[in-house]
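Hi there,

I know you've been waiting on this one. I reran it after we fixed the sequence typo, so this is the corrected version. Both the input and the resulting structure follow.
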Amino acid sequence: MAAAVCAFILTLSALCGPRVGTGAVSTPTNVSLKSSNMDLVLSWDSPEGASSGLLYTAEYNTTVTSYKVGCVNISQLECDFTNLSISMYGKYTGRVRAQLGAESSNWVESNQIAVDKDTIIGSPTVTLFSNGATIEVTIVDPVFKTSSLRDVYSLPTYNITYWKYDQIKKARSLSNIHQNRMVLNDLEHWTKYCVQVQINTERNPNPSKPSKRVCASTTNESGAPWVAAVVTFVIMAVAVALVVIAVVYRKSISHFLCPKDSLPQHFKEYLLAPPISPVYLAMQNSHPPEEIYHPVSIISDNGTVEEGSPLEATGTSCSKQPDSTIGKR
C-alpha cells in the first residue's frame, strides 16, 4: 500500500511539476537536410502560431561524431553547414530548436543524407557550333560549392538528347558519353536542331538537372576546320621565326636600318672650307659707294643769298620752296 502511494505521488509530481527551459515553445516543423552541388543546408518551417521574435539554433552531426553547433539565435528558416568542415563523402543529420527569450522548444531532428549520393547535381552548360551538316556540342560541368564534379565522381557520363526544332517527340539520345565535346553528324542540311544534356554518375543514383535547351541550324556546305588550323599554325611559325631572326641578327639589322658610315674626308674638308667664290670675296671687301651731289644757292626777294644743304644726286627735293626765283651759280 505504501509503495503504491509513493508511486502515485511521484507520477503526479512528474506530470504537474514545474517545467524548466525546454518544451515551453512549440517545435519547428518540416525539418529537412538537403544538398545541392555538394553543399549541406538544413531548412525548416516556423511552429504554428509562432510569436514574433522567435529565434532558432541548428546543429549537425555525423555517424561518428556528436552534434556540433552550426547556427545560433538566427531568425532565418535555414542554416548552411557547407563551410563547417563538411566531408563530401560523409553522412549527416541535422537538428533545430526554437527559442523565445529564456524558453526553448525540444530539438527536432532531420533526415540523414550522404552528401555524394544524395546531392542534387546542377545543370551543365551547353554550347553549340554549327559546321555544315554537323553540330559540335561542348559541355561545361556545373560548379560545386566544394571540390569539383570530376574530383567527387571519377567517371561521370553525359546523356545527350537532340531533336529537330518543334519535333521533340522524335528526339534521339546518345548515352554514356565520357567526352565533354561531341559532334552530331547524322543531321539534315538547312535544319534547326535543339540539344539538351544531363550528367550521370556511378555513386549518385539521380541524374543531374537537365541543361537549358540550346538550338542551332545546319547549313549545306561544310567548312574545313583543318584549313584554319593549318593557316594559324603557319602564321604562328612565321611569327616565331621572325622573332628568332630579329634576336639573333639584331646587330646586323640595326646596322642595315641605321648605318653609321661617315662621309669621306675630302667631302668633309670641302664642306667645312670657307667659300672662295670671287663674287663672295668682292662683296665681302667692297666699300659703300661715294655719293655725288651739287651745291645750290637760294636767293630771296631782298637779295640775300642763303646757302642751302647739298642736294643728293638722286634728285631729292628741298625742304623749303620759297616764291622767289631760284638761280644756279
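Quick highlight: The two ends are 186 Å apart (CA to CA).

Best,
R. S.
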